[in-house]
Amino acid sequence: MKALTWQGIRSVTVDTVPDPILQQPDDAIIEVTSTAICGSDLHLYEVLGPFMNKGDVIGHEPMGVVVDAGPESGLSPGDRVVVPFQIACGDCYMCRRGLQTQCETTQVRAQGMGAALFGYSELYGSVPGGQAEFLRVPHAGYGPVKVGAELPDHRYLFLSDVLPTAWQAVAYTGLSGDADLAVLGLGPIGQFCARIGVHLGMRVHAIDPVPERRQMAARHGVTVHDMGEEAIGTIREATGGRGPDAVIDAVGMEAHGSPVAKATQLATGLLPDAVAQKAMETAGVDRLAALQTAIELVRRGGTISLSGVYGGQASPLPMLTLFDKQIELRMGQANVRRWVDELLPLVEDPADPLGVDDFVTHRLPLTQGPDAYEMFQKKTDGCIKVVLDPKG
Fold this sequence. Notes:
This is Glutathione-dependent formaldehyde dehydrogenase. It comes from Sediminivirga luteola. Its cofactor is Zn(2+). By secondary structure, the protein is an alpha/beta fold. The protein has 13 helices and 15 strands. The strands form 3 sheets. Strands 3, 4, 5, 6, 7, 14 and 15 form a 7-stranded mixed β-sheet that branches. A 6-stranded parallel β-sheet has the order 10-9-8-11-12-13, with helices on both faces. Strand 9, helix 6 and strand 10 form a beta-alpha-beta unit. Helix 4 (162-171) packs across helix 5 and helix 4 (162-171) packs across helix 12 (336-348).
């Protein structure tokens, strides 16, 4: 089959790799009909290279049609499914508590990490990903979400990651209705964080340096701002001088405005893999400009919700400010299956309350995946969300 594979920092290629086969009774094989590029994939593309191996099949936002199913999978050929980015059993202590990203059956204990993820480095199990023509899905009796055949792929595809991640980020703020929410970053996750806030009745401000991203969010009732101190002042003024009740950091470890940390990340990536891994595990530093902004902006007694991925072990935090302002921090990978039942009616609603129809900016064949990665990273051609079509 054809698949998009990691070959090095800022290098992915389309290669022929072996077709996946059933390995366990609860496995399923899907023919992928749509697969998206996630902002988290860019971390593999740029920063997390020391944990990747040449030829790794990447991608963790797929959906498709079942072509083969093990006897314990609960699936049948022809079923149309969305595949969550994490692999979880559904029955362990953590899964029963809605913490599927901490699944005790699939935890990558050799790395001291949580549940295995599709297409996401040695840290999360080196499981072949979904930017491919076919995908083996372990624990298919629990993970895949069956969907109908009437609506187009893009209505369902983002249940794999983007929508649950954004929904959890908003849920973790503890806000609803009459409240002020700020969102830092209007990439794919930030777009839906902001829209979900509006959908739930909040006053939503969002900050992003890219005009096309601001324009998209503004179409959905979000008050948008360019980066800079002026935005901080404007938002604070609009919230009675206090700042918003909660801030969502939807940017993560590669934030703009952190030149020293960026140089450190890039230098680490040039070291031999074994040395670079150790350096990142013990002394890794994230670009914290977005998180620092969140800490500055949120009102006293407010909440910061982190949905942007962070990976540093030595990232300095202003503990005095966090303590003095009595800020609550919540974070973590999205527990997809925990939120799907709330999201499925919204993506199937003909009124499209979250604006899923106004989200994908580029749909390209899988063969153009390398160009798509470069375009997405550089934010050229108005690129906000790319979906790849394996059938092309």
